[in-house]
Amino acid sequence: MRVLARPGGDRRNLGELAVEVAEGCLEDADSLLRAADGCRYVFHVAADYRIWVPNPAGMLRANVDGTRAMMRAALATGVERVVYTSSVAVLGHVEEGVADEETPSGEADMVGIYKRSKYLAEAEVRRMVAEEQLPAVIVNPSTPVGPRDIKPTPTGRMIVEAAAGRMPAYLDTGLNIVHVDDVAEGHLLALDLGTVGERYILGGDNLSLAEILGQIAGIVGRSPPKLRLPRLPLFPVALLAEAVGRLSGREPMLTVDALKMARWRMWFSSAKAERVLGYRHRPAEAALADAIAWFKSAGYWS
User: Fold this and answer.
1) SS3 for 220?
2) Is the N-terminal amide bond of 144 cis, ω within 30° of 0?
3) Domain ranges of the chain
4) pTM over 0.85
5) pLDDT tens, 166-181?
6) CATH of domain 2-297
């Protein structure tokens, strides 16, 4: 088994794995060719996952151009099957309901550069399947949480802040929470049982943000936040936080795009993956508990 890792990148999650490391990055097409050479299968999991970035062009290069380059490398080296990790971020929303793989969406519906980059990347994969015989299956994870979220991801940051008691209020929104290990298993199922060109949502439980924070509070023995904030008055605060972020170089905790996304309950159905792939997921509380235990042991709060 071979993995692609950036030169100088954090490799703590690779330390206990019996893998060959190929150095490279999504912006270096030659490194992707070297990494794919001799492989039967490619899992393209890498992406720049941030809700806010000071340089949107860099995210487009990594997520869109990098995906295209990885798919071309797979074609050039004769890979038998590709599993491309997209996101539920590319799917449409259902007012007061649950979206699935067929819920329509367009580029104009994408809020923020991350969602737009993933939408364009998946569109490129689908085009290459249709026009260039790329043997790719697409999976769309929802909101994976669990151990070894080193950076952490935006969702991981929320869990850390809530578990540490630094999130006294919440917005009326919702997420689909899934254990990262179940998402990994879903990738293997897609490799074996997925149909080229099809997409499969790999999700878990649909919960309101209040329910998520309540579960986190119960796990760590804190009281859950009681204050529900309205979205619209927070936009000036988000603009100020982004301005500070540009000066400091640190990602702000509150952003304009995050507030726009919070308009919707981002709830999704994994019924297709369950029916076709045999995909299953554990309860969201188990995913949150595993994430919290790892963050605590890794010293993310005292």
Assistant:
1) helix
2) no
3) 2-297
4) yes
5) 999 999 999 999 999 9
6) 3.40.50.720
